[in-house]
Amino acid sequence: MIKNLMRGLVPLALVLSPLAAPAPTASAGVQLFPDALAELTEATEDPAGYEKSAFPHWDEGLDAADGCDTRAEVLLEEAVEAPAIGAGCALTGGRWTSFYDGQSVTDASLLRVDHLVPLEEAWASGASGWTAARRAAYANDQGAAATLVAVTARSLRAKAGQDPAAWVPDDRAAYCRYVGEWVGTKLRWGLSVDKDEKEALKLFGDGPCEETVVRRSTAPR
Description:
The longest helix is centred in the C-terminal third of the chain and has 15 residues, at 175-189. The chain has eight helices and eight strands. The protein has helices spanning 2-8, 33-38, 70-78, 119-124, 132-139, 153-159, 175-189, 195-205, and strands at 30-32, 84-85, 91-92, 96-98, 103-105, 111-115, 148-152, 213-215. It is α+β, with helices and mostly antiparallel strands.
């Protein structure tokens, strides 16, 4: 935990995050990271009763007629070089960059589509009280680019479902984007943060990620 957080405290000029930008206006649907973080509700997390099956995924995706499920549609959306689409939405060729570790991947089978805010984390911070339909909507959310992300299996194992108090990407160009998207996703879905999580996020907001932009949106009801 401490190693990752201290690694994050580097001069802002070194943070090459695509979300680092001049001050935006709230009306544009964006906020600076410290302001967005301040809007999150702090509450004790309760993971009791969590089961992965409470979040059905993957569904038929945004286009029910394309034969691709949510996972495949995310891979198609995030491809740096588009893959060929075969029968049953089998993907061949193409290229992706896993933002957690910066790795270039040319085989879709080596990628995992991660819930940036993990399912168990979502459950513990508010989703346990949702309807089954809303949990399914969260698990398959393509309405905001940050909710689902294609990453390497290795980086997903390193994350291991942890929140930013215990894990953030090592790459300097990635961790401000990561914490910004974490906060944006929690705001989008009305999820809370626990004390340790919020304190860890504040370390980034008070230091290297102060000017990171959080893209704001509200999940449909």
